[in-house]
Amino acid sequence: MSLESLPDDAARTMDVTAYRRALGAFATGVCVVTADSVGGPLGITINSFTSVSLTPRLILWCLDERSERWPAFAAADRFSIHVLDAQSEALARRFAKGSGLMERGEYQRVGEAAPRLGAAAARFDCKTHERVQMGDHMIIVGEVEAFEASDAATLTYFRGRYGIAGGAGA
Question: Residue 105 sits in which domain range?
Fold first, then answer.
């Protein structure tokens, strides 16, 4: 497929698989978002994380409305985003599928923050600032209340595969 504009009728009938493949040309980091729910602490793997503003400290992530975890994360008042370290592929895969329920000993509690995972190159504890429905996803904007980061290499995702980026001395 060329990079030329598609006619309106072709754009409407574009193959979703081809579209996802094209989006996969953009390498992303891999994160797990955690929050509390009625059923217990939950996690979900995402790659739709970005900074919105430095002052105030705002970040955003996107939640697919088809996710079985949609109700809990769409309603959460607090969440934590964990930028996964290079050793956390199994964790990313685990929270990408299934119920997302977290196991005891897998997370820590600190104050009012959402459950915290240990395997993170960076973590952002957030209070939900705004929710905006866009297409088949909800954009969730969070106000960062606390954060921490290390020099660890991070897990990446590119063309359907996990990889590694950076780290101390890279």
Answer: 27-160
- Number of structural domains the chain divides into: 1
Specify the CATH number for the domain of residue 76.
2.30.110.10
pLDDT at 21 over 90: no
Give the per-residue pLDDT at 18.
Answer: 86
**pLDDT, tens digit, for every residue of 96-154?**
998 899 988 889 998 889 999 987 999 999 999 999 999 999 999 999 999 999 999 99
Whether 15 is in a domain gets the answer no
Q: What angle do CA 79, 85, 87 make, to 5 degrees?
A: 125
Does the pTM surpass 0.85? The reply is yes
pLDDT at position 139: 97
Number of C-beta neighbours around residue 30 at 10 A? 26
Q: Are strands 137-149 and 122-134 parallel, antiparallel or unpaired?
A: antiparallel
Q: Is 10 contained in some domain? A: no
In-domain check, residue 8:
no
List the one residue out of 166, 147, 170, 148 whose CA is nearest residue 86. Answer: 166
